[in-house]
Design a protein that fits this description.
The complex is a heterotrimer of chains A (436), B (280) and C (289).
Chain A lengths: L1 H22 L13 E7 L5 H15 L2 E7 L1 H14 L6 E5 L3 H6 L6 H4 L9 H5 L2 E2 L17 E2 L1 E5 L3 E6 L11 H11 L17 H13 L16 H13 L12 H9 L5 E5 L18 E4 L9 E2 L3 E5 L6 H11 L2 H9 L7 H5 L1 H6 L3 H9 L1 E2 L7 H18 L3 H18 L6
Parallel strand pairs in A: 1-2, 1-3, 10-12
Antiparallel strand pairs in A: 3-11, 4-5, 6-11, 7-8, 7-9
Helix pairs in contact in A: 8-9, 8-16, 16-17
Chain B lengths: L5 H34 L3 H4 L14 H8 L3 H32 L1 H16 L2 H14 L6 H26 L2 H9 L4 H29 L3 H6 L8 H6 L9 H22 L14
Chain C lengths: L9 H29 L1 E2 L7 E2 L3 H8 L1 H31 L7 H8 L1 H4 L2 H12 L5 H10 L12 H27 L3 H8 L4 H29 L3 H6 L11 H11 L3 H26 L4
Antiparallel strand pairs in C: 1-2
Classes of the chains: A alpha/beta (436), B mainly alpha (280), C mainly alpha (289).
Chain lengths: 436, 280, 289
């Protein structure tokens, strides 16, 4: 009947198409026309807009290589990149990565060796930014399974110098950025008015990565750390407990729903003019002066987070690496050379981008255009990254869950940190770490 | 309570029914309205408190952005082509299979489990093997690859659903027609199919919606806008440090439009037509 | 009900064959691969190591995973039950003709048509502490400021509400179609005999609808077991671990922590739960076949 015929035809067509396709031997990978093209795979983020919209077209004009930019959501891109690396598909030439991913990607061999490809960084690169691209890490502990004597190799370069800065209202902190955390607490106590939505502090409270990132700076500023000697878990040390208790005391002056806040709500609260201070990523900086995004144009200033015992910022750079199975390694390398050249970096900074060359970040004209570059450079210098191990995600999840619980209960800092430490130690032991 | 007259009871029922329907509509459409509302706001207004019921600074920038900067047009085209083909194929083959399952119960018992099994497995467990299989035949990042995968997924589901609808229709109707000289095929077309039309319409709508909004496989089995679908493109608006709510809402509105149009066109089959009464 | 054993056995087999092949290709092969994966571990930078049943042994002691299975079960049962009842109610309300019926029916299925990730985002906005319409309304009505997604008691019900909002249209659609496909004569006969609406409903409509009811419950429950998008966007499993559903845990384990083997074992664990559940559900309705 007619329907049967249609059915048979469609089926036949589909089978024929598939057969033809496989017969043609086309595996979809090494297409000759891609000599003149490189494919970026990345997550979406406003911090990348400048690169995408202005600098990639410029790159094409300068070298004739077309840059194709493929985007997915943050976790989706991570899965895709992992899959691409694992199966050696080579759908992408350059992976844009969170610096957290470098241990996993480099350690598993998904990234091309930049030393071998002939890339030579120079001292003008901000050292802390450049160091994140080495595997095994240049300084600090090495995770089990990694040869303790292996020479650190360069696998990835910084792309955007994203780090956490202290954002504060310059009309409220009228005498400049608060020097210590106690000053922040004092101002919050004096001027907070939750009934009228005036919050002395806002932060991320969602369990896991968000709250961990928010707490990280305080942890280090109070003299605490995540791991001590030989990977011993030390985030339940007395200093860490003090840091958490301080964090909880700040929360009295934060919006009540802070436990469900992620970057979006944190940023929104600050940009709506409802909060006095927060530690946020540099990607938010340009938005503070955009009237379609902010109600506090020119009222936000930036600095390195205040001091307690130490004064640190948290690093969360966007890194770029060349895929091990990339179809156009030469083209990708050319991009790295072009984008990291002093002139391009300078232009990038002058356009408001978070460059990774010291000279570019120091440039007067750039700093005039983008008020946050000076703070960015200082933050990079005293910046601390997340622990350099591929198992950090799991530990972060454990600690982040307990931090969230402490936030919900508005107390019991020591109990939750101890619980997290116990669970993390058990996990690390099972994963082969030499924890005591 | 005094006994109500028939007319009074009918009127009471009418008003009750009306109220309930209005309530259902309100609850259903409020978040939809909010989506449209958000899509017309700029970022600063999305997060204003108290929330504004209608944008104070109405802007179409979100819609412009999703088409010019986020390739939504391409994703829309891909989705329509891929999903349309897959659903069509699976409806055709699946209904016939469902009919066979309904009328030949011996097979039915053996296959019950296997037909539903693909839906029981969390997609995460299936993704890598599927990726490897498709890579072998060179269909990664190709529309045809996704069409095949979606057809394969929908087929058991359509067969299962249609089987239960066919089962509702008594065999005697067909047998009566066949006694009168019609072939099985004829009786299928003239008697069974019209009676099962509501079921087919429902299955079509549901199959289309599920496939259209499928995210995980589309994410892993495609890599570039050449073959990626709307859900992938929409989710890409979730960034590392920020989510673009306005643009996401706009993308959501654009993505929902084809589905709503389809539903409007097909939903009249959800109700039995007037011709159906003339069965005996 | 249907039993025609004609000659020509090949015809039905041919019709069913593609379906069976697809079902097998999508289950047996990938499942085999998953089981294989669950028997290995994937240390960084080295080739996979065969560890036998070690992952499953760890699973038996993993309290976090057990509680996530519990959360998933609660979510599934409550959501599906409400969706069924509300969907049935709507179907009964709308089975007769009335003005604007096309428009109203289409409007009622719109929630289902919106991409799940967008549903998550919109409800995040609606539930949001200061900026959400929902919170604002509650505050205006009761004077108490509520932040649903950061409440350990309200977060899971809030998620279930989102699911109910999104998927009741599915139940409505299927049950409406089911009711419409029922032959008229038994109902006419019953009415002629003087049976009341409630009696007709309980003793005629429901039994005749049984195949459709089972299918709709099963499909919805299976999908609810694998809920992911809304939880990911709205709560990420928080506050605490109150909305940590199994799929979220599997996702984090396999992808964030790169423990592919353990994640695959977890997926098998979830599968076992799902199979038990569907078997129980089917058996409960078996008497009608």
């Amino acid at each position: 009947m007619i329907r049967r015929k249609f059915l048979q035809n469609s089926l036949g067509l589909a089978t024929a198409a598939t057969a033809l396709h496989s017969l043609s031997g086309c595996s979809g990978k090494k297409d000759a026309s891609r000599r003149g093209q490189i494919t970026f795979g990345s997550y979406a983020d406003p911090a990348l807009d400048l690169l995408k919209d202005t600098f990639l077209p410029e790159f094409e004009r300068a070298t004739g290589i077309h840059a194709e930019w493929v985007e997915a959501d943050f976790s989706g891109w991570f899965q895709k990149a992992l899959n691409d690396g694992q199966t050696k598909t080579g759908a992408f030439d350059i992976y844009v990565m969170d610096d957290l991913w470098v241990p996993r990607f480099a350690g598993a061999g998904y990234l091309a060796n930049l030393d071998e490809l002939g890339f030579q960084p120079d001292p003008d690169f901000v050292p802390s930014a450049l160091d994140l691209g080495f595997w095994p890490p240049k300084t600090g502990l090495r995770q089990p399974g990694i040869d303790a004597k292996a020479r650190p190799t360069l696998y990835s370069l910084p792309l955007i110098s994203d780090c956490q800065l202290f954002f504060y209202r310059n009309d409220i902190f009228s005498s400049g950025s608060p020097a210590t955390w106690d000053d922040v607490l004092k101002m919050a106590r004096q001027k907070s008015d939750p009934a009228h939505r005036k919050y002395g502090w806002v932060t991320r409270g969602v369990k896991g990565n968000p709250i961990m990132n928010s707490f990280f700076v305080l942890l280090h500023d109070f003299g605490g750390d995540i791991f001590g000697e030989n990977w011993k878990v030390v985030f339940n040390s007395p200093q860490a407990v003090e840091a958490l208790e301080f964090y909880l005391s700040l929360l009295q002056y934060a919006p009540s729903g802070v436990a469900e806040f992620d970057s979006d709500q944190e940023g929104a609260t600050l940009l709506q003019g409802n909060a006095f201070a927060a530690t946020m990523w540099t990607g938010w900086c340009p938005q503070t002066d955009d009237p379609s995004k902010s109600r506090v144009v020119r009222k936000i200033s930036f600095d390195v987070p205040p001091k307690k015992v130490n004064r640190v910022a948290k690093l969360g750079l966007f890194m770029a690496g060349i895929a091990a199975a990339a179809p156009n390694k030469t083209g990708a390398l050319e991009f790295f050379k072009w984008f990291s050249s002093p002139s391009v970096q300078l232009r990038f900074a002058r356009a408001g981008g978070a460059a990774f060359r010291t000279s570019a970040l120091r440039d007067e004209e750039a700093q005039k255009k983008a008020r946050w570059l000076d703070a960015t450079l200082r933050a990079l210098t005293c910046g601390v990254p997340s622990p350099r191990t591929s198992d950090w995600s799991k530990v972060e999840d454990i600690l982040g869950t307990q931090l969230n619980k402490a936030l919900l209960e508005k107390g019991k800092a020591k109990e939750h940190l101890d619980a997290a430490a116990a669970e993390a130690t058990a996990f690390l032991k099972g994963a082969g770490y030499p924890v005591a | 309570m005094p006994r109500l007259s028939v007319t009074q009871r009918r009127r009471l029922w009418f008003f009750t029914r009306l109220t309930l329907i209005v309530l259902a509509l309100a609850i259903t459409l409020l978040p939809v309205y909010w989506m449209v509302n958000t899509s017309l706001k700029n970022q600063v207004e999305v997060f204003t408190s108290p929330p504004t019921l209608w944008p104070q600074n109405l802007t179409f920038a979100n819609y412009v952005n999703v088409f010019t900067r986020r390739h939504l047009g391409t994703y829309l085209f891909n989705s329509l082509v891929i999903v349309g083909s897959a659903v069509l194929l699976s409806l055709l083959m699946g209904s016939l299979a469902g009919y066979a399952l309904a009328r030949f119960s011996r097979l039915q018992q053996k296959l019950d489990f296997w037909v539903l099994a693909p839906r029981m497995i969390p997609p995460i467990a299936l993704v890598v093997p599927l990726f490897l299989m498709l890579q072998e035949i060179g269909l990664i990042n190709k529309k045809l690859g996704l069409i095949l995968v979606y057809t394969a997924f929908n087929l058991p589901f359509v067969a299962w659903m249609m089987r239960s609808f066919f089962q509702e229709i008594p065999v005697d109707l067909e047998e009566a027609a066949m006694v009168d000289g019609a072939t099985r095929l004829r009786s299928f077309r003239d008697i069974v199919l019209p009676l099962a039309a509501p079921g087919l319409a429902a299955t079509a709508i549901f199959s289309l919606i599920i496939t259209y909004n499928e995210f995980f496989f589309a994410l892993i089995l495609t890599s570039t806008p050449a073959a990626a679908t709307l859900p992938v493109g929409t989710a890409a608006l979730i960034g590392k440090t920020q989510t673009l709510y306005g643009e996401m809402a706009a993308a959501g509105v654009v993505a929902a439009v084809p589905l709503v149009i389809f539903a409007l066109l097909v939903q009249r089959h959800l109700v039995r037509g007037l011709t159906m009464g003339a069965v005996k | 009900m249907a039993r025609t054993g004609e000659g020509g056995k090949w015809a039905p087999r041919l019709l069913i064959a593609p379906t069976v092949i697809c079902a097998l290709a999508l289950t047996v092969l990938p499942l085999g691969y998953s089981v294989l994966t669950s028997l290995r571990e994937f240390p960084l930078g080295q080739s996979p190591v065969f560890v036998g049943l070690r992952n499953y042994a760890s699973l038996l002691h993993d309290a976090n995973f057990h509680s996530s299975l519990g959360t998933t079960l609660i979510f599934t049962v409550v959501a599906t039950a409400f969706e069924f009842l509300l969907g049935l109610g709507l179907a009964l309300l709308l089975k007769e003709e009335f003005s604007f019926q096309g428009l109203i029916r289409s409007s009622l299925i719109v929630p289902m048509a919106i991409a799940p990730v967008v549903v998550g985002i919109i409800w995040r906005l609606l539930y949001g502490a200061d900026v959400g319409l929902f919170s604002f309304a509650v505050q205006a009505l009761t004077g108490k400021s509520v932040s649903v997604l950061s409440s350990t008691t309200l977060a899971l019900p809030a998620l279930i509400l989102v699911d109910i909002w999104e998927w009741t249209p599915f139940m409505f659609l299927i049950l409406l179609a089911g009711i419409q496909s029922l032959p008229q004569e038994p109902f006419e006969a019953a009415r002629v005999d003087g049976a009341g609406s409630w009696n007709i409903f309980v003793h005629l409509t429901v039994p005749m609808l049984k195949p459709v009811i089972v299918v709709s419950l099963l499909i919805r429950a299976l999908d609810a077991f694998t809920v992911f998008d809304q939880v990911f966007v709205l709560t990420q499993g928080g506050p605490g671990t109150t909305t940590e559903v199994a799929t979220l845990m599997i996702y984090k384990t396999a992808f964030r922590f790169s423990q592919f083997g353990y994640g695959a074992a977890m997926a098998m664990g979830l599968l076992v739960l799902v199979m038990f559940f569907s078997a129980a559900l089917t058996r409960a309705f078996k008497s009608s076949f």
